[in-house]
What does this fold into?
Amino acid sequence: MSPAQKPHRVSVINCGIDALTFGETLVEVDRLIQARRPVQHCVVNASKAVLMDEDPRLREIVSSCALVNADGQSLVWASQILGRPVPERVTGIDLFQALLGLAADRGYGVYFLGATSEILEEAVARARREHPALRICGWHDGYWDADDELVNHVRASQPDILFVALPSPRKEYWLAEHLERLDVPFSMGVGGSFDVYAGRAKRAPLWMQRAGLEWSYRFWQEPLRLWKRYLLGNLKFVHLLVKCSLLGSPGVDGCGDHSSDGPGAL
It folds into this structure.
């Protein structure tokens, strides 16, 4: 994909996914940053697809994002079953780490928002070790009282990339509400990526990631907290996929093709 081209977006169950490889995603992020217009990025996995089916507002926000990637292997498989294949998964944690390198190479400033103070400081320290040239504009933990004060602080820091490590759908709601006032060219929700990057949480072995079993590794680590999300959520996701396979109704709110010339309104 050349820098002048925009991604091809297809509908997978109930959301538009940009059919991009990991490398093409990095090129597109670079293009969006250079365009200097505040845009929101989102990754979608089975759990979020289920949330979007139950939450029209979340579905609207994700659909309006400038760039949407398939974070979970289940979304890639679903796209293939539905005949609108996404080339590969682009996980939030992998993209987050790659963008740190891109920012260091390009001179882009980054801002870290979310997680606990301790985890955040460890993540920032690692970023500094691995990318000495990285321009870190600031950071703030995931606990604050006044949105206006935080938004003004981020805006005054003038980052090119904002990483938001909050749970879904809180991060999607918050970014959508404050995107224009933040005035950051590229804002990305990264979920628990700071925890992983800081070494506080472990990812599944590579073979489990490639086999689409990363969710089971996370479930094994925290079964009491995640049983509803993964066991019930996965069943709901399969139900949605079967319904879409049988009905094939059009539109992003349904199950049909939703190709577009570009990712959202740019």
User: Anything to note?
Assistant: The radius of gyration is 18 Å. Confidence is low (pLDDT under 50) at residues 249-266. The chain has two domains: 9-197, 206-243.
